[in-house]
Write a structure and sequence with these properties.
This protein is α/β, with parallel strands linked by helices and 423 residues long. The protein contains twelve helices and 27 strands. A hairpin with a 2-residue loop joins strand 25 (350-355) and strand 26 (358-362). Helix 1 (14-22) runs parallel beside helix 10 (316-334) and helix 5 runs antiparallel to helix 6 (151-157). The chain is elongated and about 70 Å long. 43% of the residues are buried.
Length: 423
């Protein structure tokens, strides 16, 4: 038993890692546990999926990040449940982590709205594994089209469908269009990658619903300029190896389907046996605590927080602010000082890129689009990368790609049963 207060943080995403670093120097026994040994910068994961960056450019070992923090210990493990009575976190291998304070920052995954059987045909994009899977399927589809002598099969293989026109869907669609129509045009002989069809499917009446209508309209026009076909007001009713089925009875033949239509929180609410919203997020108190669970906090994508009548978005700045707030609360309690009070989210704006030279930014008081917005989008994303070395590497690679239209990370790696005889 440690004589020091025991703090357990589950999840090494933006929220969990920020909380851990904000507790540096405190006389506590701090444990950070995650089922992955790295911190992932999710906003740039689509770049890995479309061969713009390597996984190592957007993911860094948690042990390395916290190596100089003397009060922190990092554990690799998967949480399966929480015993609130004994104040223990239970891991899949049978280990138990006792806590005095608990911070759950376990993130979210993609949801198929009750159609989980679609996942094998339409991967989402939340993990490095998802990104390398998508990259493999994108590049393999073109390789198979090159091998095929059947025009109908080639057309299907060269059709890429993305379901969901939020930031992830828009960024994927724009990046795939640029990859096929700008980068790969000299790489194949039997096919012309300019003929690649990129289809973005959205159930609502516009893309980027979280942005003002004027910026949504600009994004739509930019996507269409890049050759992306956008299907609005379209409900997906089926998804299989042949493509998509829609509510009006029509179908889209596509060998590759990607899912960007929604997210669901981790099972934290079930672990704690507390109320959750429709997405599974824990309905936290104003200070991010959990009703009925003293000294337990939930932050990031796992928490449902409403301020000024709006849901606090599941974005990196929000998670980092929540991590800092919980750390301040714990520090104040251990020092016998007054708690900082309710969490207040400071909204720094909303950003999304449509592709090269094109992005939209909504700062509330200022809205931008086009080239300047694209540069600001890039600067903001590089700024949020962890460590000067990572910022330099990504910025250098982006600049080189900008000048050369290169995508050097075009590697097809296992498995999908090791390409299933390629064809």
């Amino acid at each position: 038993m440690s004589p020091l207060p025991r703090i357990v943080i589950v999840g090494a995403g933006f929220g969990g890692l920020t909380a851990a670093r904000a507790l540096d120097g405190l006389a506590v026994d701090l444990t950070v546990v995650d089922r992955r040994n790295f911190h992932l910068f999710q906003p740039l994961l689509y770049q890995v999926a479309t061969a713009g960056l390597n996984p190592s450019d957007v993911a860094w070992p948690v042990r390395g990040i916290l190596s100089r923090q003397k009060n922190a210990r990092v554990l690799l493990g998967e949480v399966t449940s929480i015993d609130a009575a004994t104040r223990e976190v239970l891991l899949s291998d049978g280990r138990k982590l006792a806590y005095d304070w608990l911070i759950l920052a376990t993130g979210a995954t993609h949801t198929y709205f009750g159609n989980d059987q679609w996942e094998r045909h339409a991967p989402g994009l939340k993990r490095v594994d998802d990104a390398t899977l998508i990259r493999r399927r994108l590049l393999l589809a073109l390789e198979r089209a090159e091998n095929s002598g059947d025009p109908a099969e080639q057309k299907k293989l060269m059709t890429f469908a993305i379901v969901g026109a939020g930031p992830t869907g828009v960024e994927l669609a724009g990046a795939i269009a640029e990859l096929s129509k700008k980068v790969l045009i000299h790489d194949f002989r039997a096919i012309n990658t300019r003929d690649v069809r990129v289809v973005l499917v959205e159930g609502a009446d516009r893309v980027l619903l979280s942005f003002p209508p004027t910026l949504s309209a600009f994004a739509l026009a930019e996507l269409e300029k890049k050759g992306v076909e956008v299907m609005l007001n379209t409900r997906v009713t089926g998804c299989d190896a042949d493509g998509l089925s829609f509510g009006d009875g029509s179908k889209l033949d596509a060998a590759t389907v990607l899912w960007a239509a929604g997210v669901a929180a981790s099972p934290a609410a079930r672990w704690l046996n507390v109320p959750a919203d429709r997405a599974g997020r824990v309905q936290v108190l104003p200070d991010l605590g959990v009703p009925g669970h003293e000294r337990v906090f939930v932050i990031g994508d796992t928490a449902a927080i409403v301020q000024n009548g709006k849901q606090v978005p599941g974005v990196a700045p929000a998670a980092k602010q929540q991590g800092q707030h919980v750390a301040k609360t714990i520090r104040a309690a251990l020092a016998g000082k007054k708690a900082p009070g309710p969490f207040k989210y400071r909204d720094f704006g909303n950003l999304a890129t449509i592709g090269r030279h094109s992005a939209v930014i909504d700062f509330g008081f200022l809205r931008m689009k086009g080239l300047i917005a694209w540069w600001l989008w890039g600067i903001a994303h590089v700024y949020f990368l962890i460590g000067a070395r990572n910022r330099s590497l990504v910025a250098t690679q982006w600049f080189f790609n900008y000048l050369s239209y290169s995508r050097a990370a075009r590697l097809i790696v296992g498995t999908d049963e090791d390409y299933k005889e390629i064809r």
